[in-house]
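Data card: per-record layout.
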Amino acid sequence: MQYAATFQLQQDFLTHYDRLLKEPQADARQRAFAHYMAANRFFTDNDLAASIRAIDAIPSSSEYHMPAQMLLAIVHLNQNDFAKAIPILHALTDEASYPWTDLQTAYIRNTALLKLGLIYYQRGEFQNALSYFERVSQGFENYDQALIGQAWASLRLGDYDRSLARSSQLLNDFLASQFTYEALTLAGHCKRLLQQPLSALNAYRYVVRSQNEKEKKQAYNRERETAAAHERELNRLESEALDKKQAALYAEIDKIKEQLSGHLEVVNSRTDSGSLLLQDYYDERLELFNQLDDLEAVIEIAEQEGRPDLAEQARKQLARIVRVLETYRSDQEVVNTAFLLDFPLAAKEASREYQRTNLTEVVRDLELEKRRLERNVDLVSEYQRLSRNKGDAGSRNDLDLLEADLSHLRDRLSVLRKSVADVRPEPVAANAELWNDLAGFGLTDIIYKERSSRLNTIDQYAERLKGIEAVLAERRSEIESRLQGYENDIRRLQDSLLSRKIQLEQLERQTYFDKFYFDKKEQEQEGWEEQLNRTQTP
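The structure for this 538-residue chain is written out next.
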């Protein structure tokens, strides 16, 4: 039944299910387990009525009763029958949970709390939803879903600080949670509501950039897959060279494998840990090591040729390179050496896709191998029939042994195939495209609003500048008017002074003319020349 359920063999599953129910030696536990498996199988095939009948057949004393009740609640939820689902979930949440409680009981109880929280959130009863989300145990493996539920419920209740705190808690405690992008988008929205647009930008940018990091991880996985394919081909060629005793070819293949192994180590370090330190320094340091080898060869040849000067010069150069290697970039701060670790969910998404692809190929190869084994078993059966007709006892015994070995190998291969199918990782339901779009819209909106705000600020500054320029123009006009008045006053003063000066000069001339220009004496006085001539005459 498990094998048929794993590989979607519906008819085989139903056949085994009916046979087990009719088997008189099957105990109550086996029957309860068969009913539980059948209920899950029917639910997967969307046969909800058959799933409910199988669940009802499980007794309440069975260890599968609680898981079956959880499945029954989910069936009712898929039928939108909340009236039947909610009482079942309430009953499951009433199960006591202690540190010594059975893990299955604790898991089912916490799952029921989560379901109730989601139901009440969907119905718009956000306070009830928040109370159920808060009752989920912190050690629960899906506690990140409870945290994102608390964040959304707090947002709808208007408690933005609490919503932001729960989103931050999810991001800090669950590095690669599938709700990382949702929590970041929600945190960015809360920061916008709390008037923190620049901080919101960082949250939005992370979500937008994560898709680029996922593409980088996928590229690394493709590179690793290509290198692994080359290694498999080299192993095949190595086996052929060994069979044909081609020593030179074997040595060359071994050398290439060693180089490829080194490349795979670099790829693994880049993909698994994201360390780019070796990638950054590898080529330059390799060149320095090659120079060391060359210098050692030069020293050896110089000593053989009796050239101590050349050997000493080579030793100095070698010591120099050693010092370079010791101090090479030792003062440089190592940054971005694990950039993929900054985007763990993107790395997880890409790794999960890579694992699923590889496991799908493994399951397909195992199926082909199983078919080949079945054909070989049929062929051996045909040979056995022919050997019996010929009476060849020895060949018949060998064929019997071969048939037993092939049948055993086929059974073991079937077990391995089921094991591989059971461990196939589920895809990460991060809904990255949706949150990437919403974060992009939020990012664009913030940038647009910031741009509009800055343009408004610039416009306000421009208006203020216009006002200042108007005031300055008015003041300048007033000052120019005053200066013009001062100039007119000065000009009037200058004219008044000049007029006064002219008047004074005229007055002075008139005074001189009146007092000194005409001689008013009664007898004319003798001049000095005449007096001199007179005194010299005898």
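Known properties of this structure: The CA atoms of residues 324 and 331 lie 12 Å apart. The radius of gyration is 50 Å.

See the next section for split statistics.
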